[in-house]
């Protein structure tokens, strides 16, 4: 051992030279610390051409087999491993087996040179899991002097076994990790490897990896060594990152960080309702309207996702998910969601297939707008634990970008240069666009959160899945208030009160608003004995401001609760915050930096003071390196203060900040006379109605609500004078009703009704409600404003949105277009036989394409839509937002051309359609073949219905259902003569020689031979008084009393035509006169029956046109037969003839 010395030193082991020793009498490996930095190699030869990782592993295991060791010298003695920090670890050294077999060997016991001393770790403790339990080592230490040498042999046999097991296990893990086909940190890894519960175990494994890397480099396996070094160093960085993220996210603050108490996130986190669906598109509604839409329960359960499964594909989805966008309105819990995801990962509870999770916020990224980074540098900048990693391609990485709506970086996905090198420096916006677009680090996963209005900043093709965070459900609202108010009666009263105001009830879907409401009501219940609780949003937010001002006076100013709360200092604070709120709302900003504050005349010190004393209104957040960021506790608070600023400025100083003149002028225009509030309201209404995305809707509600004298009394001290009267508000109401008469979008119209509610004017709504209650609603005479009121009412009655039947209001295209928002919100829309055209089809396509549409079942049957209309509707069916499950186009004049459009739309793998009704059309063989061959997740061979088809079905109107009748001689009364091949029946004086038959009527009636099925239409010509009827076959025959006559019982329905001058209908022996226009009287009558739908309609046929006379709606329970009869006033010669159409 004194020759053939060669020194090996690795940069990673500067102070830790190791010797690989092979004894002369056995093939064994052992480590020895060499003070001379010498490396001795006996028979072990490292060649330039080394074996593969697998074969290396096998060879290493061979070395580890026990063998006979000479004990006459100390050449094979195992000494404790000495690390550069002077600590020892038995787990971090490659141990030399000292025994050849389980049998004890002859060992010289005359000296202690072969004694193995316990390994000492850096913290002074001994490793217990892989070598020996701590208790055993203590006993061994205490009894070393007295212990019998035989016991040492058995102890070290066990020690040898444990070390060999550890080394084999670790080498197996290393070999598996170095395989090219081995997935990075697969989920099965957790099953094969023990979880490291303490730093000692983790340190042991990390040190062993360093030893293995060193060995591979000695063997000139540089590539394998580099790969293993990268992985082992990644584990160290991952451990440090997880530890720091746990510290960062395990505690959150209730309220504001500076004022609240830290609580554990895991304790207060409530599972949020996350649904899959939607797309990265602009929603033209204010967020409150979106909450209102989302609050309606779907017909069937939606696809819900837990936050830990955000990157897992749902059933039926193909392909990996790289980028997820989660949308949700302000205050709904998106940030908590990402923090919980990160914390669960850091605590090893979920997503352990991910090596690194990097949570960013756009608030912090905005600060780096003018700086340049490479992607690696950006990660190192925020997460210093990873500075030892120079590339992330070898790891599964998740980037979280929270708050896209707060981004002030110019994200240009169309004109940004392409970047693929993660080490190349550029601006942060270029980094983000290339990372999100998949050009940079395509193996990474991305999770982006945003408010809906900003979702379109990212192209849809860059997003694999869109999810949405919903607010509190109705039960969760109640649960919140019952937890907040321990008094059961008090909680029940508050819940009942909230339900009485639709505005408050809708807003309570947002958790933050529940907190605002609870804060206000708790204070009012304590300070007021009786009195009315706030019912409008404006009242609620005024009280909230007053409560926070009182808290500030007591907590910071040393005042009492009864002291005047609008001190000069408080007025100045509210005015400054109001100006900031309005000017930033105009720009669409919800977070504010120093430059934003400076524009509004607020310095950083003042802003910090505001956030310190009005902690529940305005808050300060500190990002990386203590950059100061400010925001209001919720967007609605900002909107309220913005409205308050406009109102105060107008009332106190006579300046209308919303007028066009004021918007373009730097100097405020002050009114010489007393300002007219109606001018302020009108300019606000005009501005809000022209907003493309409704971002001023809630602001408008607050502004109008502030004009009520009851609300102004609460602000006495802020206002120098009252600025409105009952007459002023009346004029504002009139202006709103005038605007409702214009061609507004449904979203803007609905918000105007919320504005009327803030003004406490319910006249228009109550008028329509009265019509609905009395059943006297006539849509023919409704004004546009009344139509809007009807929409608002129907949308408010959520229980009526399951099935929407247009015929209840008006079977017309105009009614459909007016009530389209109701169709959009309904689960099922019945639009059969409503005279719809292509115009309706285009409108319905927009409904189907809307991501907020609830429509699942659509019945368009009996409308002559033709192929052109079907093509328009198919455009909506193609949309990924379309969730239609059943679709009826029965009797819509669809031919092969329409089938082509349908097949193209339904060929998408995302189609939800499971039933298509094309009966009573003319699709032809090729059209049927095309649709029958469709394949989809819900489409089966039974999905298509195509009965009663043929060329005659492309005729217009109900004539397409023509059914040829045949009079039945066996049922004809003996005074009815049949002629014209049983197609004409005439009342005569002479008794006819009919044979006896049980079906023959005693009264002047007869039936047709064949029953009716499906949809049938026929026409007859009448002379004299004739009854045209439909009846069950079981009607009585052998009596002439009323219950055997057509229309005399519940089993038959009849139209009486008297000499073409009088019509009446009969059912259950009750007569209903019909008075059509004089020009519509005709002796030719058309009858249409839809047995399935339960409708029976009579028409007067005049010059080829059908004039509707009456429709019966019934639930037909048996086979129906056409029948005819003659009344008691009929004279001989009266007749009825079957016509051919």
UniProtKB/TrEMBL annotation:
Record-linked Gene3D superfamilies: 2.60.120.920, P-loop containing nucleotide triphosphate hydrolases, Ribonuclease Inhibitor
Family matches, as PROSITE patterns: B302_SPRY, NACHT
Compartment annotation: Cytoplasm
SUPFAM superfamilies linked to this entry: Concanavalin A-like lectins/glucanases (SSF49899), RNI-like (SSF52047)
One Gene Ontology term, aspect cellular component: cytoplasm
Positions of the NACHT domain: 322-454
Keyword list, A-Z: ATP-binding, Cytoplasm, Leucine-rich repeat, Nucleotide-binding, Repeat
Domain called B30.2/SPRY: residue spans: 945-1141
InterPro entries membership: B30.2/SPRY (IPR001870), B30.2/SPRY_sf (IPR043136), Butyrophylin_SPRY (IPR003879), ConA-like_dom_sf (IPR013320), Leu-rich_rpt (IPR001611), LRR_dom_sf (IPR032675), NACHT-assoc (IPR029495), NACHT_NTPase (IPR007111)
GO MF terms held by the record: ATP binding
Protein name (record): NLR family CARD domain-containing protein 3-like
Natural source organism: Mastacembelus armatus
